[in-house]
Design a protein that fits this description.
With 252 residues, this protein is α+β, with helices and mostly antiparallel strands. β2, α5 and β3 form a beta-alpha-beta unit. The two termini are 47 Å apart.
Length: 252
């Protein structure tokens, strides 16, 4: 009944406004007349349940449109923090005509699923600038992974970060000091230096700033992708990503 009541109210309002002037005036009804009217609305909905689904579809469309509009405004208001924060790793084509930002958690199964699609999109398109924002939200191992990747970049540069990112997104075992030490050595990095840098104020501040931005944008899950005119919350298959990038270009 909780679904019927708001929909019945909406239907009642629609009937009222569609009726000729003066035909229906709920404010001038007695309680008995109101009850009778409500009963008629309920009976109509029970006899025509498809109306409920139509109303739900319209509501969802309106909510989606409102969300898209709000997202667009937020992206525009925080464009510099999103696309040019001065600390996030930039890959793909640094001079690309479209910038794609990914909020990433290495322990997120959907981020792992999206990884190869994003790589293929960047490689096949050739004109996309990719910005990765470390957004560890799934617990201590996520946080340790992001700290390692950021530390690798701060200590050894962009290539080291990219290598660490590629390894961490595919890492299936436990993330701890032992496995991260082994990873650093495998990547040719100074493990002791990386482990010390992981706990540095600089790494902590980068994660804090990204979390603050995510809060501002209403981002609560990963992966989340941001383009100049929209946000995509969740995994998007490769073909969908290609179409979205094409739409962004066509909208210019």
């Amino acid at each position: 009944m909780t679904l019927f009541r708001p929909l019945a109210g909406a239907l009642a309002a629609a009937l009222i406004f569609a009726a000729p002037a003066g035909a229906i005036d709920l404010t001038d009804m007695s309680e008995a007349e109101r009850e009778a009217f409500r009963a008629e609305v309920r009976a109509y909905l029970l006899e025509n349940p498809d109306v409920i689904m139509e109303a739900v579809a319209v509501l969802e469309q309106r909510e989606a449109a409102a969300q898209e509009s709000a997202d667009r405004e937020m992206v525009e208001a925080h464009a510099e923090e999103i696309f040019d924060d001065g600390y996030s790793w930039v890959g793909g084509n640094p001079e690309g005509d479209v910038t794609l930002v990914e909020f990433l958690d290495y322990r997120c199964s959907y981020c792992r699923r999206a990884h190869d699609d994003v790589a293929e999109l960047i490689e096949s398109d050739g004109d996309i600038r990719l910005v990765v924002k470390e957004f560890p939200i799934l617990g201590p191992e996520s946080l340790a992974s992001s700290r390692f990747a950021i530390a690798a970049r701060q200590v050894a540069g962009d290539d080291a970060y990219h290598a660490a990112k590629e390894a961490l997104i595919r890492m299936t075992g436990e993330v701890n000091e032992v496995t991260l030490t082994r990873l650093a050595e495998t990547l040719g990095l100074d493990a002791d230096e990386i482990l010390v840098q992981m706990e540095s104020p600089e790494v902590t501040e980068e994660i804090r700033r990204t979390r603050e931005l995510a809060d501002t944008l209403g981002i609560t899950g990963t992966p989340t992708f941001v383009l100049p005119d929209r946000m995509m919350r969740g995994y998007v298959p490769l073909d969908g990503m290609r179409q979205i990038v094409a739409d962004v270009r066509d909208a210019r």
